[in-house]
Design brief:
single chain, Arc Repressor Mutant, subunit A, two-stranded antiparallel ribbon, 2 domains, 109 residues
Length: 109
């Protein structure tokens, strides 16, 4: 039996409190699981970037806020794929404050 099936079979026997605890554990485990985004200390000062590129996520978010469309971003950054933009947007939704701080920092530079 695989792990997912095991958890599914155990779920009905858990109390609401135990289910909530399990959910918190899963969410915490997934919190930094963004396969399309990575932070590397020696790349762009460790800021989260789209994998395979040196394009910081905050740059894409700032462009989006300024009204730049997906098609234009893909033309401007040939290394980007549509799924990269989706991964970056998912990262932004989960790390809104961090990305906002990076945008503000760039405007002050």
């Amino acid at each position: 039996m695989d792990a997912l099936r095991l958890v599914e079979n155990l779920l009905p026997s858990l109390t609401r409190a135990k289910k909530a605890q399990l959910l918190r554990t899963v969410v915490q485990d997934l919190d930094d699981a963004f396969p399309g985004v990575e932070s590397t200390p020696d790349v762009c000062g460790g800021e989260p970037c789209v994998v395979r590129t040196r394009i910081p996520v905050w740059v894409l978010e700032q462009a989006r806020r300024l009204g730049v469309g997906k098609e234009e971003l893909l033309r401007s950054y040939p290394a980007l794929r549509a799924e990269d933009l989706a991964d970056a947007q998912a990262f932004v939704r989960s790390h809104r404050a961090e990305i906002g701080d990076q945008i503000r920092d760039s405007e002050g530079a």
